[in-house]
Structure prediction request, 357 residues.
Amino acid sequence: MENKTKKPRVAIASGSTREETVGKAIELVREDIVAKIRGRVLIKPNFLSSVNKLASTQAGAVRPVLDLLRDEGISMDSVTIGEGASRSTRQALDNFGFRELAGDYNIELVDLNRDSYSNEIELVTEARKTHKIEYSDIAAQADTIISVAVAKTHDAAMVTLSLKNMMGCLKRVKRPRMHGLQLGAFAERAGEKMWNVIEDHSWVIKIASAIVFRIARFWRILEKWQYKGATPGLLSQVRAISENIVRLGEVLMPDVAVIDAFEAMEGEGPGSSGTPVKMGVAVAGTDPIACDAVMAHMMGFDPMSVGFLCLAHERGLGVADLEMIEYIGDDPSLHVRRFKPHSNYPVQLRWREAWKD
Prediction:
């Protein structure tokens, strides 16, 4: 019988290059990872940006994962690298070294933004209503999901790591719903058609993004009128995204988490406004919540103060209590840095205060 009280193992490694560092972390928990591998394997990088290397997963962080799979006799025909970039997946694959990587290992690269979507997740809005979002059939049909994430601060979730990385499997135009936002059906339909046309034109995307956020603000004004002044606001959005990331994890929890913090991001993340932090470390394991908790700790945050980590821990999706985790490799305390949080941090800490009846 499986020992339910066994502590999850999280590997922490340091090195002089990204590939070396991630490779060391993976090797420390090789046995754990191999035990999780079965059937069709989806490797999920993070392409928040198509041009900014600091904001996105680099091929050097994925190469050690492919080496492990190949060394273990896993057929590369069963392995796919798939992501639905926030901007252009094609440009990200070009800019971050994935075309060469795919050629070296003879594996398939897939743009999840062009996938079919047959399944839905029910989410909550900032006003505590519900709506749904579709997610990729490739992700739904994968037998093994390996999330290869980048360690970054975030404007609503405090940090973005291996679990939140799975947002790239969601239908792109509806991803604001994860933040609790309601753009309206017309705006989403129009946005979907437009985005697929303009995604390779960064300056057009900037304009379109500005329009989308203005629509979101307009809807909040309407909500303020509807609820007689009780605008949900940022605090409710922080609470909504915490809840929704957990709901995402209930459906698409990675089997393996790899977090690249060789060069991480602090400050006004998770995009182009964040600034680099040279950590030279990586984390790997088969409990993504535990891996995210350890990385959050090394970024200087209390994992149990991070809304989605605390909720995931409370609901049994993983372990976020640092005392309940077994550390393999480096002592994480040796790598703790005091990251500059996002300017929304004071509100992020108050996530439990939202939605009080």
Notes: The mean pLDDT is 91. Residues 9-349 form one domain. The longest strand covers residues 256-267. The two ends are 43 Å apart (CA to CA).
